[in-house]
Amino acid sequence: MKVLQIPFEEGQANLDWLELTQALAAGHTRPKAEIQDSFLYRGKDTLLSRAAWIDGLGLAVKSATVFPGNAEKGQPPINGSVSLFDDKDGQFTALLDFHLVTKWKTAGDSLLGALRLANPDSQSVLIVGAGPVATSLCEAFSAGFPKAQLSVWNRTTAKAEALAHEMGHVDVAYDLAEAVQQADIVLTATMSTEPVIKGEWLRPGQHLNLIGAYRPDMREVDDAVLRRSAIYVDSFESTVEHIGEIKTPIAEGVISRSDLIADFYGLDQFRPDPSTVTLFKNGGGAHLDLMTSHYIQSKFAP
Prior knowledge:
The protein is of the alpha/beta class. The protein has two domains: 4-102 and 287-299, ornithine cyclodeaminase, domain 1; 119-284, 3-Layer(aba) Sandwich (Rossmann fold). 32% of the residues lie in helices and 25% in strands. Strand 3 and strand 4 form a beta hairpin. Helix 2 packs across helix 10 and helix 3 (98-117) packs across helix 10.
C-alpha cells in the first residue's frame, strides 16, 4: 500500500474551520476512542507520545517534542510527526505534516468548545499570548465568530503588536485585567506555570477557553476562576490526570472531579450559561489528532 504524504500548504488548501468542528463533533458519535498518552520530561523539555484507535476510523500515533528554548534560537519550539494506520488491516496509510495537524486540531478543538459554550453573539475575543498558536486562533475564531473584534495581549508587548500587524484585523490589548473584563470570550495560549488570569476579573456570561497549559506544572488561571466557573473539557482522559490546570486543583480540593460537567463525548451537555462563566479546557489528545487527520485526508487531493 502506498503511503500518502500530506505537506502543510497543500494539506490545508481546502480546509474550513467550521467544517472541521463538524467533523470533530461527528467523530465523537463513533465508538469511544482508545487512547494512551506517555510523557517524558527533561527540565522544561517534553516528549509527548499519543496514540488513538477509533473503531471504524482507524489508528493514529502522534509524537511531539516541545523544547521552549528553541524560540531563542529562531527554531520551532514544537516538532514531531503524525502517522495514520488502516482500521481493517493496520497498514501504514498516511504521514501528515505535524504542524498542519497540530494547527488545525488545536484551534479547531477550542473553537468547537466555544461554539457550544460561548454566547453566539459575542462581540469581542481576547487572545492571551502571541505565540504560533495565537495566529491559528485568530484564523479559527474569525471564522467562528465573524462579528467579534479580536485583540491580543502578551507579556512582551512588541510580540502582540507584531501579531496584530501580521493579521491586520486584530487590536493590541495593553492592560490584561481591563481586557479580560471587557471580553466576551477569553482564550489563553501561554506556557505559564503561574496563573495569568484572576477570577476577580471575570463576569457572568463570559466564556474562558484554556489552551496553553499541557504539563502537570502549568497553570493559566487561579483557583478563583475554577471555583466560579462551569467547567468542561475536551477529554477527561487527557486532562484530569495529566494537566496541572485540572489535576492540581482537584488534588488540593479546590474543585472535585464531579465539577467537570462533560467532555466532547457529552456534547449535548455543552450550552451557554449567562448566569456564570463557562470554562473549557483544551487538553488535546491523539483521538482529536486522528479525527483531524482523517478530515484532512478526506479533503486532500493528491
